[in-house]
Fold:
Amino acid sequence: MHQVVAVTQRSAVERPTAAFVLSLLAGIFVLTGGVALGILGAVATFFLAGVGGVIGVAGVIFGIIIIVSATRLYSRPEEHTTWGVIIIVFSLLSWIGAFGGFVIGFILGLVGGIFALVFNPKPVGLTSPPRICLKCGAQITDPSVNFCPNCGNDLRISQK
Ligand SMILES: [Zn+2]
Structure:
């Protein structure tokens, strides 16, 4: 019961869940891509003490930045523009040092970042409750009408 209440309260502020999930997955793919490239580089330069492994470091860092941005985006939805831009930029950068997160990470990051940018945080509860005609009791679903569609009662007067 307590958990149900907590969930209800948390959902009072709309969160960019889709953007968060996509960006988080993108970060994981980019991170993995960086690790893979690092291992590949290290193996390829085995006789040079594996210095090639360094090339994957950038990919790992980019992946971590994308993951952190995704969690920030979720905890602070009002900063969605900032985190959206960062996620897109580092998804593009993931082509350096992370194979673009196996391409999938790049695409997920791009879509997630765009979702974050266009996200419109609007607290639930600000929308006006449905009006009810005081004359006939009909529920007015269209908020723009001034007259009751059922009996023609002037709603502007009856609301006051
Ligand atoms: Zn009416």
Remarks:
- The chain has two domains: 16-118, 128-160.
- Helices lie at 2-10, 17-44, 55-75, 80-93, 99-102, 104-118, 155-158.
- Confidence is low (pLDDT under 50) at residues 1-11.
